[in-house]
Predict the structure of Phospholipid-transporting ATPase.
Amino acid sequence: MPSPPSFKSHKQNIFNPTNSQQRKSVDSFDLHLDDSFDAALDNLQIDNNPEPLVTHNTVGDRESFEMRTVDDFSNHSTDSHRKSSHTDTHPLMYDNRISQDDNFKFTNIASSPPSSSSNNFFSKALSFLKISNKEWSKFGSPIELSDQHVEREIHPDTTPVYDRNRYASNEISNAKYNVVTFVPTLLYEQFKFFYNLYFLVVALSQAIPALRIGYLSSYIVPLAFVLTVTMAKEAIDDIQRRRRDRESNNELYHVVTRNRSVPSKDLKVGDLIKVHKGDRIPADLVLLQSSEPSGESFIKTDQLDGETDWKLRVACPLTQNLSENDLINRISITASAPEKSIHEFLGKVTYKDSTSNPLSVDNTLWANTVLASSGFCIACVIYTGRDTRQAMNTTTAKVKTGLLELEINSISKILCVCVFALSILLVAFAGFHNDDWYIDIMRYLILFSTIIPVSLRVNLDLAKSVYAHQIEHDKTIPETIVRTSTIPEDLGRIEYLLSDKTGTLTQNDMQLKKIHLGSVSYTSETLDIVSDYVQALTDPKTDPMNTSKVALSTTRKDMSSRVRDMILTLAICHNVTPTFEDDELTYQAASPDEIAIVKFTESVGLSLFKRDRHSISLLHEHSGKTLNYEILQVFPFNSDSKRMGIIVRDEQLDEYWFLQKGADTVMAKIVESNDWLEEETSNMAREGLRTLVIGRKKLSKKVYEQFQKEYKDASLSMLNRDQQMGQIIAKYLEHDLELLGLTGVEDKLQKDVKSSIELLRNAGIKIWMLTGDKVETARCVSISAKLISRGQYVHTITKVTRPEGAFNQLEYLKINRNACLLIDGESLAMFLKHYEQEFFDIVVHLPTVIACRCTPQQKADVALVIRKMTGKRVCCIGDGGNDVSMIQCADVGVGIVGKEGKQASLAADFSITQFCHLTELLLWHGRNSYKRSAKLAQFVMHRGLIIAICQAVYSVCSLFEPIALYQGWLMVGYATCYTMAPVFSLTLDHDIEESLTKIYPELYKELTEGKSLSYKTFFVWVLLSLFQGSVIQLFSQTFTSLLENDFAKMVAISFTALVLNELIMVALEIYTWNKTMFVTEIATLLFYIVSVPFLGDYFDLTYMTTVKYYAELLVILLISVFPVWMAKAIYRRLHPPSYAKVQEFATP
């Protein structure tokens, strides 16, 4: 085993000039120490003339620096230290937080407190140190660094001295509660809402004799029912979460460093584990070895980033062929601090403290991905638990509140005011003669508490679950998933729809339709000509990579060489890998564009035969020969660079070539000057094609070797690595490329996009398209999708870079309010920065807005600004990772499961598979959800109001005495067993047939006005409750006397009338009967009849068997219900609602 680095070498690493500007701290974990601390101290070398160490301390706004030398610590003999029992304290470490004046923090990391022994070397040393401005934990817990961004140096040793538990545990825990916290936490979550707390106070008040007006159970049971339903739902959800966690935590993995299988939850940083095909990756790993000789492995990342394409990962070349013993004992891994980005990673692996190789994201296996390739791989755990990329990107979803719920809350506040007003009014009528008048007010508040319906929230939450079930089981929109069940009613209130283009309006099924070489273009109809040119690739007289050198005597020969150069470059310059699964060839790539290009080259006779990280082989189908190229370097595509490049060596001619393709906006500056690129790019964009510019550059061996040397040095840097690498690429490669040509890839519209957009527009929804594509492409697609009508004027704003230019455009838009707007991202940024209010005051009224060249953040900003400026409901729909921000910022986010993955789908409130399903989701389910919940809310409030009115009338007739009319089971049963099921069955009603919602989409416009639940409809229901409650109670008291002996008779007739009145009102409000509704009505009625004999404590059962009782009951119900029915019928005849007109017109 090699000796550990000396104390001096540690110090030299700290003062390494390459790190002098780095504001990060470094934990050095030296795992090369022997089992015995004695051996570690024997190897610890201390200079005779040490340099002073500077301790940097910060207290508040003041900073102080303490000078210490190693001699300050060396007065304590190592011999005496060896006698110490504390052998688990770690060597001195450094916090590499280097400031510009080269002062740094001196830090020690330990897993136990220092020994109290005076002769303990490390204990004495620690007494001089300021450890991240925190005191040493007296309980011996690991010290927490002041800065969580800590780089780590990891040695996969079987006998580590340091305590690995100082890192995050790898145990997964998504449970919200435990046995101890379940009840207290849930009670807090419920009673932090005013209304639940109000009912709790009302219930508890019955324990006070002066306030008691009935049985405690009368008020506790309704509240307990609500809490029980909520707690049961939470408990079931939490049990399911725990079950999933337990399954993940107990998955076994073979740990090489421990030579045994270990549950996932017990994995530690530094463990070497063996992962097999199909295994879930349990933590963030660095891939060290693969069973494939090439070191390649594929992973599935759909559960991490939503992308369904397999990702290629490669083992570090330095470790691919090492023995297990060398992996355990002779390597160290430096990993950057944990961070959220799944596309970035900086690190390096060192072998025998001498040879180093850089590590990038291509060498990582992130937690929660799955190994897809055959065989196995060996990897080292670098991040666990909350430090993994998956955990750091898991955020608590923002709880969305629907517009209907906000409206109900406003109405509930009015009801609350009504309770207080009515209570004070009745006491005032009594004249405040009683000295305890304030107690009477409190008793009235308790009596009228039913006005504020405690069960309203439960009813609405259960209704939302019903709507979600209906949506997910609708066969016309298969595979639809409801991820946020709190806002289905908002689907019926959408006024703005912001849509992505690629994969949302289009299929994201790419086909290369055209290539342009400057003077000539070839389309899918002229593939035979291209195939003929490609046949010459294996001609022994033709240089496959440099056909331009061939003597050309005719224009045809010149064109032949240009086509071959173009096709060959397309066939090589990509990141596509052919894979075989169940003996079927599939192409794996991050972008459908690349697969489309590879399939195009295959169609013209040059197919991708084999590829690994070192080589690529092309099969020339005409001759059957293979063209082999060594891959020297790959520069992957990303959204920032907008280009992809590759350096290859032609094995036949030993020539070096740099090939690159990318967006025209960036490639125009890299290729040689020309006079046709911009024009042809615009022409292709007008045809709706996605364009890529193709270029190449020949490199001499000397230039390549110089590039490789500088590029490798930059790749080993832990500071600004990407920036340094980019500078090297620009210096040697990205300039003066030979422009080969231009490709045009077609992305067809999705099924029924045109008709869906027309339906949504007729429904009163303003549709915006936000895309990252080019201006002309966006214009073409918007016209073909009927976002813009033929002949409709489109005002285009592009390249506005000055505020005065933006102001002039605003003045024009004020005059032309009927124009469609097409704007690029650069101009949009200018408006957002300088004229946000003025700009959106205008554009929200335009018929259509198309924003192109948009960044993901700009998409999100547009959604937020529209919500803020208009106060209207905004729906955003997309399919890609670049749409996630926009979707999450919307009132309603809809994700399409696309070919690029599920990232948008997983982040959305609703997940669908096609854009056309949105019409069903909004026009049918959105309409029903809103109208049903509005009616349900009003019925629940009516149910509480009417019984409160009965109580108020009784109190007035009782000379304003606050005495309860209904007590015990009557109060409990009224809101539950006797009325709840019929009222809740309204969630199954619909006022119009499903087919008519698409024939008459204009019906949707009325929903956005909120007429189904408004202050107007609320006061209508208040008057209705006042009328019916007064009729029921007054006639009940008229038919019986107020003598004490007749109280039971009066309660019997009034309560029965109350229950039957509610059942009849529900029946009158139903538009479309179904079996469930009919059963709930009949079953509830029968249940009440059966329960009457058990209510002898409240009713006069003898009186209820007389004909007089039924006659009086019938009269009360006729007077209570018939006028309401007549008024409703007359109003509908004079002012028929739109849905009634449509239904009547559609009925034969």
In short: The chain has four domains: 267-387, 424-486+921-1146, 490-505+750-914, 513-535+555-746. Residues 1-149, 159-163, 548-555 have pLDDT under 50 and may be disordered. The radius of gyration is 38 Å.
